[in-house]
């Protein structure tokens, strides 16, 4: 595989993995929880490096999952006390965990072959130089991991499809038929934590959030159907990957950052020109409705009809 | 700033850092409180991220790398971000959390692109911009601190001048609007103040973690007082303390400033959440445990009275069988009663002392009073909005009305 | 109270009047071409089924939400320029009960628009606040944080805030929702006292039984104004059926409502 193809596949697969989860996060109003979890996995990575002294994926995924769960449970517990509101609970827990991770990296940087830059920018440009030994075959590491993440999320969404759909649409009904919305949210956020940590190497801890939220929010403006929303989200993800790659090399800037910017561009386009929920379409509709109301009111008055 | 710096018992550099951190903590604490009470702290997070591209654009436009020039860019982008978040929320389809998330991550992505673009230009001084990610107190100079202090004082003066309109809008926007307040304008003012706090802090704490500095002081202060003025003042003090402690620790250890400040702040909040009198988690748990214990002891007292009424003084074993209470609970309750001198023993057998009999009487009277309230409470005219507390009806109604209630019950019985 | 006794002051403008008020949410009309007036010195109710636009009418009249068409008058003057004559008790579901504020501070808010938002309160203001607190029986609770009160006590505080405003017209949005019977009776007595003092009171209310028994005047609303007039003429089966719909009357309505419809 050529270097460019490896980078493109890595970016596209990362966006796909995120795009499978993003629509649920947006529909469940969990977008900011996913932001929190994506930050909170950082200390998990550091701890896994320190304990196992390896960059092998499994321990790191485990460490990230543990800290993702700590983050979610911590926020839930803090809200549960009633002493702080939900937004403050989020804003207290994830910065503390992220700060822990940053301090860990700064202190043990030489030991873990990590640096602060890579937490922000990701290392997608180095993707062609990393390989993973799979059953004796040397395969590009980030592509293999990307495929694994997509497969895992696809399985997650497919297996829990009905439960996710029910709890997203009507949490109280779901609870009545014994599907706990809180537990589904936690499972979803654990999936976010694992996706975040796998994507971490390529796009960095924070730009994962862009790929989780922005394409899904754009798709939400374009369709009313869940399956279509997921398809559009993934499509926007690939568009961001391709666009991000080409613009980044033109401007000599971060590939991951440029992917985020392209995704944001897609969102703006959907917001302005979406067929039904776009600003332009709504303005036209509102103007028509106003005119109709005025005509109807005027007619009623002229006919002298009682109100 | 000169005389103040001289007055501090530190070296010049350390004094500048400490002062800067104090100014940042004070303003973030007070102005962040406004956001916390509106439940808009995560908008603050989005705005903090939005300052990053602002700093980069200011650098590209002017080539200057001094904090003061870059602040202008940060402020402009913060305001743009604020307008866009509100606009997106009002556009209808996109929910508030998604709107904040989209703004936050889009601006941050733009910031990263610009940051790496500047890096590729290979100019000197690009390294300075990276400190806007995680924060760096070390680079602060006296002029920066002076500008931060002036900005902060201005913002605090606005809060002091508009205290009542702000309080009314924060607590009950509908009522404030019906009283003629321009609440939209006040919301814009509050958001602008939030941007000021972020602009002051972002260099030292960093764009990613700035939100914690907005929330920590307010969340801690709210646990300690129930009045807005008190929360604002305390939040300012807590913010300044956290800021100075964190900045000095970071300067000493060479760790990035933002994370150290955030961790110090988190510990302070945790302590307040656990220990605050009247509210804290541990405080409430202790109160609950005490109430439960009292209920248990009173129950055992009545059990004992019932047993004594029906026969000879019981042994502990007999009492456990008769009352059906778990042995451990019974043992604890009897221990408590023994300590207060309510029990007397005859070998294995337990009976009530004189003071014990008095306590039984008091407990029974309380129970009678409660059933009298349930039965006749509706006939009782109360002079104000007092309401019955099932734990202590007499104290909550007042002696006069408790006696009146008993009289009503006696009348009904006769 | 019979119809003849309704204390409608002849000659003066009504306390609150809306003309051709039309309000839409997105493109769906919530109020459609509503004409209604509430007489001075009367205790008036706005009744109607859920989603009839009862709260919307008050909020639009005060200019809290934009109206597509129509106008609202308070004592004959455009409502937006007569806000100083109105005391408003909004619904409480959006209030943050953990907000750091004491009972007394909440009631003092009623004085801010009178005294000026940036001025200090005078001794007179403090006396008015004390009196308002006493009148609703909240004097002993003045220093409590608002969240440490029961539902009924909280509503008393909000009524005290409206009293401190000392306005001739009081508008209350569902003041008895989620409140114990004792408090409801006390507050209803207080509203009657205020009427006796000459104030005009308009209450959004859902209990037709109370309206029939204690109110003078009513607007029956269901997006359009169904009927507006003295309670004895307006709260009658015919208008209620038009407002609530036949099906709603037969099986959807609550006890108090049914009684007056059958």
How would you characterize this protein structure?
The complex is a heterotrimer of chains A (307), B (414) and C (262). With 307 residues, chain A is an all-alpha fold. Chain A contains 13 helices and two strands; from the N terminus they run H-H-H-H-H-E-E-H-H-H-H-H-H-H-H. The longest helix of chain A is centred in the N-terminal third of the chain and has 27 residues, at 86-112. Chain B is mainly alpha-helical and 414 residues long. In chain B, strand 1 and strand 2 form a beta hairpin. In chain B, helix 3 (41-62) packs across helix 10 (183-205) and helix 10 crosses helix 11 (210-224). Helix content of chain C is 36%, strand content 23%. Chain C has helices at 54-61, 103-108, 112-115, 123-135, 151-164, 181-196, 208-214, 231-234, 237-244, 246-252, 255-261, and strands spanning 16-25, 28-38, 43-47, 69-74, 77-78, 86-89, 169-173, 200-204, 217-222, 224-230. A six-stranded mixed β-sheet of chain C has the order 6-7-8-3-9-10, with helices on both faces. A four-stranded antiparallel β-sheet of chain C has the order 2-1-4-5, covered by helices on one side. In chain C, helix 4 (123-135) runs antiparallel to helix 5 (151-164), helix 7 (208-214) packs across helix 11 and helix 9 (237-244) packs across helix 10. Chain C is globular and about 50 Å long. At the A-B interface, helix 2, helix 4, helix 5, helix 10 and helix 12 of A face helix 3, helix 5, helix 11 and helix 13 of B.
Short structural summary:
Chain A is an all-alpha fold and 307 residues long.
What is the element layout, followed by pairings?
The complex is a heterotrimer of chains A (307), B (414) and C (262).
Chain A: H1 3-27, H2 31-52, H3 57-80, H4 86-112, H5 116-121, E1 131-134, E2 137-140, H6 141-159, H7 161-169, H8 171-176, H9 181-203, H10 207-220, H11 226-251, H12 255-273, H13 279-302
Antiparallel strand pairs in A: 1-2
Helix pairs in contact in A: 1-6, 1-9, 1-10, 1-11, 2-3, 2-4, 2-9, 2-10, 3-4, 3-9, 6-9, 10-11, 10-12, 11-12
Chain B: H1 2-7, H2 12-37, H3 41-62, H4 67-90, H5 96-121, H6 127-134, H7 142-161, H8 163-171, H9 173-178, H10 183-205, H11 210-224, H12 228-253, H13 257-275, H14 281-310, H15 316-323, H16 327-339, E1 343-346, E2 349-352, H17 354-376, H18 393-397, H19 399-413
Chain C: E1 16-25, E2 28-38, E3 43-47, H1 54-61, E4 69-74, E5 77-78, E6 86-89, H2 103-108, H3 112-115, H4 123-135, H5 151-164, E7 169-173, H6 181-196, E8 200-204, H7 208-214, E9 217-222, E10 224-230, H8 231-234, H9 237-244, H10 246-252, H11 255-261
Parallel strand pairs in C: 3-8, 3-9, 6-7, 7-8
Antiparallel strand pairs in C: 1-2, 1-4, 4-5, 9-10
Helix pairs in contact in C: 4-5, 7-11, 9-10
